[in-house]
Amino acid sequence: MRKGLLTLAATLLLAGGATGYAVWSGGPGAAVSEPRDGSRTDLSEPGRLLVRDTATGLVRGTRTRCERFYAAAGTGVCLTVTPGAVPGTHALILDRTMREIDRIEITGIPNRARVSPSGRMISWTVFVTGDSYNENGFSTWTGIHDTRTGNTTVNMEEIPLIKDGRRYHSADVNYWGVTFASDDNRFYATVSTKGRTYLVEGDYAAWEARVLRENAECPSLSPDGAVLVYKKRMPAGAWRLHALDLTTRRETPLAETADVDDQAAWLDPRTVMYAKDGDIWAVPADGTGAPRLLMKDASSPAMT
Amino acid sequence: MSSRRVRSAAALLGAAVLLPVVHALPGHAADGLISQGKPVTASSIEDASLTPELAVDGSASTRWASEEGSDPQWIQVDLGGAATISRVKLTWEVAYAKTYTVQVSPDGANWTTVKNVTSGDGAVDDHSGLSASGRYVRVHGTKRGTPYGYSLWEMEVYGTGGGDGGNPGGSFTVATAGDIAGSCDADDGTDCEHERTARLVESIDPALVLTLGDHQYDDGTLSEFRKYYDTTWGRFKDKTRPSRGNHESYDPAGEAVGYKAYFGRLATPNGKTYYSFDHGGWHFVALDSEEPMEAGSEQITWLKNDLSRTTKKCVAAYWHHPLFNSGSKGYNPVSLPAWRALYAAGADLILNGHDHVYERFRPQDPDGKATSAGPLALTVGLGGAGNYSFTHKVHPNSLVRLTKLHGVVKLNLTDTGFSGQLVQDNGRVRDTIPATACH
Q1: Cβ A171–B250 below 8 Å, yes or no?
Q2: Per the domain annotation, does B166 fall within a domain?
Q3: With B376 labelled, which of A270, B273, B337, B345 sits at a CA distance of 20 to 30 A?
Q4: Is the CB of residue B290 less than 8 Å away from at least one CB of chain A?
Q5: ipTM of this complex prediction, to 2 decimal places
Q6: CB count, 10 Å around CB of B242?
C-alpha cells in the first residue's frame, strides 16, 4: 500500500515536470519537491537561512515536508515519516533545487540531521526502541551517508572507539549528533555508554573515534573548524550551550541560560542558532551578548 | 507427496538392477576408471544429500541430483591432469536427461563436445569408442526427461592418464556461517536453531568449518560456550577455524577471554586472533575485525606480508564485519583496509557474518566497482541467531538477498576455482554460487 502511494507520487512528479509544479497532497509527512524549473529555492546560494515551519512541517519557501532538515553547499537532507499502518522513515538526499536524488530507509524517530560544509557527507540520528542492551529506555541509531561513494553506514555504533587510550568494547554504545569538518573526514559526535555521555572526535577515512571529554552532546563545528558548540548537562538536569575552543581546550558557557535540547547550527562565523520553545534563537558563540529571537514558530535552521 | 513416493520406489528398483553393472569390466584392458573420487562440481544440487561427489564415489546407491525443474544443468569431473578418454558411462536415476552432451576440456573453460544425445531414455548410457583428450569431462543437460532435475547414480570416465588417484590438494568442501549459538542446546533437538545448522554441517561433512564470528550469544563467556555452542557446533570443533565477532568482545571476564579459552590454539594458532593456513590449493586468512584493522595497523601489515608470501593460486579471507551490506547495518568502513590489501593480492573469496542475513555480491573492487578482478563476497550470518531484515538501500552489486532462514554455505573448492550453495537447515538449496575461477 505504502509503496503504491510512493509510486503514484513519483509518477505525478515525472508527469508534472514539463508544465511546472506537481503538487501531491498525499497527507502529512509525504515529501514532495517542486520540479527543478519551478523552484525558487537554491541550496547552493550562499547566505540563505532555511527553517522548518512548525505548523506545516514544510521547509519555508518550499513544498518539501520534513521532520528534520539541514542543508549546505547545494545539498539538503530531509528526514521524513510516511504515515500508514507501518510508518516508513526515510532520509531524503536533496539536490540544490530540493529535488530528491537519493533516499535511504531508516527506522526510528527523526532526531538530528546534518550535511557537511562541502555538501558531501550526510548524517542523521533517529531514536529507536526495542534494542537489546537498552538501559535508558531508548537507543539511537546514527547513520552516515557518503554522497560521493553512495556508501551508507546505517548505524555507526560499530566504529572502533578509543577511550582512555585503549580500544573500548561495550554492547551499549550509542551515538548521536554528528558534525563534519570541511575536509569531509574529521567529525565530532556524542557517544553514550554505561550511563555517561562523551564527546568524540572521529576520522571517517581511518574509521575510528576517540573520546575527547565527558558531558558534551550534539556538537556543532564552527565554519572555521576551530570551535565546537554543544549542550552540556548541568547539575540540575538542564542542558546548557557551551563552546569549546579545540586548540586551547577552553570551555565557555554561552549567554543562553535556558535549557536547550537541539544541535546548534552556525548563523555566521561568530553566532549559533538553535530551537527553543518552538522558535529559533541566536546567541554569540563566545559567551558574550544575549540570546535573540531569530524566527518564530520554526525549527531545523540551516544557513546555506 | 505422491511423486516423491513413486520416485523412492524407482530409486530402490534402480539400485537393485544396477549393482552388478557397476562392476563390469571396462571395454579396453588398458583403459581404467579414472574419474572415481576425483574433484567434481555441478551447476546445482537438489538438496544437501544429493551432492556431485556422490556421482563419482563408486557407489550405485548414492547419487547427484540437480535442482528440480531447471534447464540447463551440468556436472563436471576434474581428472586431475591431461587424460585420454575412451569411454564415458552414465547411470541415470529416474530423473534422466533427454537431451545432453558429453564434453571435454583441457582447462575447465573451453569445451569440446564428444557426444551429442537428443533422445535419451535414461537407464545406462554407455558411450564407448571415444577418442577424446582433456582434463575435465562434463555432462551438460539441456532437456530433462522428467519434471525433476538431472540425477546420476554414477558418472564413470575410462581412459588413461589424469591424476594419480587419491586427492592430493584437489577438491574439498568447506562449510561456513557466523552468528550461531543462542541459549538452547543439542538436547532441544530441532527446536534449537544452531542444533539444526549443526546437523546440516554434519550432513555436508566438510573438510573445514569456517566460522564468521559471534559463535556464542550474548557475551561469549566460557560457561555459555560450554553450555550451548559446545553441544552443537562443538561436535566438529577440531575442524573449525574460527574468527572472532563483536559478541566475543563482551565477555565480562575480559575481551575474547571465553572465546580464546574455548577454542584454545584454534583461535590463536600463532598467539594472535588473526591467522592464516593452507588447505589443498587454497590459502585461507582469518581476520579479527574487533582488533585494530585500519591501514598501517599491525594486523593489516601482517595481512599484506602474509598475502605476498603465499604461493597458492586461490585465496579466501573471512572475518566478522562485512564491508558492503544491504542488511540492517549498512556499509562498515572498518573492513576497507583489509579489502584493499586482499584486492591488491588478487584474493578470490571474502566471507563475513554479523548481519543475520544472506547476501551475495558480484565480484567488485574495494570502492564498490564491479570487476571480475575483485573477490566475490558473501555474508552468511545464518548460523542460528534471530534474523535481521534488509532495509535502508540495496547495494548496486548485491545479487542475492535472503533472510528469515538459518543455514550454512557449502563451498566446493578446487585447485582452480570454487562454487557453492547456500543450504537451508531443511536441506533446501536457496542459492547457487556459480563456478568461479581463481584469479
Answers
A1: yes
A2: no
A3: B273
A4: yes
A5: 0.77
A6: 27
Stretch (H or E) spanning B108: none
Quick check: B294 and A170 CB within 8 A?
Answer: no
Please judge whether A158 and B332 are an interchain contact, meaning their C-beta atoms are less than 8 angstroms apart: yes
CB contact under 8 A, A132 and B218: yes
The β-bridge partners of B172 are B413
- Are residues B273 and B151 located together in one domain of the fold? no
Q: Which of B320, B392, B395 to mutate to test the interface with A (most CBs of A within 10 A)?
A: B392
pLDDT in tens, B27-47: 444 578 888 878 888 999 898
Range of the domain at B49: 2-161
What confidence tens digit (pLDDT) does each residue in B338-370 have?
999 999 999 999 999 999 999 999 999 999 999
- Neighboring chain A residues of B295 at a CB cutoff of 8 Å: 206
Residues B53 and B157 in one domain: yes
B332 has a chain A CB within 8 A of its CB? yes
Is there a contact between A105 and B391 if contact means CB atoms under 8 Å apart?
yes
Cβ of A169 within 8 Å of Cβ of B249? The answer is: yes
Torsion angles phi and psi, residue B327, rounded to 5: -75, -170
B residues 179-238 near A, CB within 8 Å? 218
Domain co-membership, B82 together with B112: yes
Q: B129 and B180: one domain?
A: no
Tens of pLDDT along chain A (304 residues) come to 333 333 333 333 333 333 333 333 333 344 444 444 345 789 999 999 999 999 999 999 999 999 999 999 999 999 999 876 666 899 999 999 999 999 999 988 999 999 999 999 999 999 987 554 445 567 999 999 999 999 999 999 999 999 999 999 998 999 999 999 999 999 999 999 999 999 999 999 999 999 999 999 999 999 999 999 999 999 999 999 999 999 999 999 999 999 999 999 999 999 999 999 999 999 999 999 999 999 999 999 999 9
**Candidates A105, A170, A207; nearest CB to B393:** A105
Q: With the CA atoms of A248, A251, A255 and A259 taken in that order, what torsion angle do they form, in degrees rounded to the nearest 10?
A: 150
CATH number assigned to the domain comprising residue B131: 2.60.120.260
Question: Which helix or strand (DSSP H or E) is residue B94 part of?
Answer: none
Helices B336-344 and B298-309: angle between axes, nearest 10 degrees? 20
Q: In this complex, is the C-beta atom of B388 within 8 Å of any C-beta atom belonging to chain A? A: no
Residues B103 and B200 in one domain: no
The answer to whether residues B99 and B241 belong to one domain is: no
Using the Cβ of B246 and the Cβ atoms of chain A, whether some distance falls under 8 Å is answered with yes
CA distance B308 to B310: 6
Q: Does B179 lie in the same domain as B157?
A: no
Q: B391 and A158: CB-CB below 8 Å?
A: no
What is the C-alpha to C-alpha distance for residues B43 and B72, in angstroms, rounded to an integer? 9
B120 and B205 part of one domain: no
Question: How close is the nearest chain A Cα to the Cα of B238, in Å?
Answer: 29
CB B263 within 8 A of CB B237: yes
Residue B73: all three cell numbers together: 544443468
Cβ B391–A170 below 8 Å, yes or no? no
Q: Does the CA dihedral B400-B50-B47-B190 come out positive or negative? A: negative
Domain boundaries, chain A: 1-106
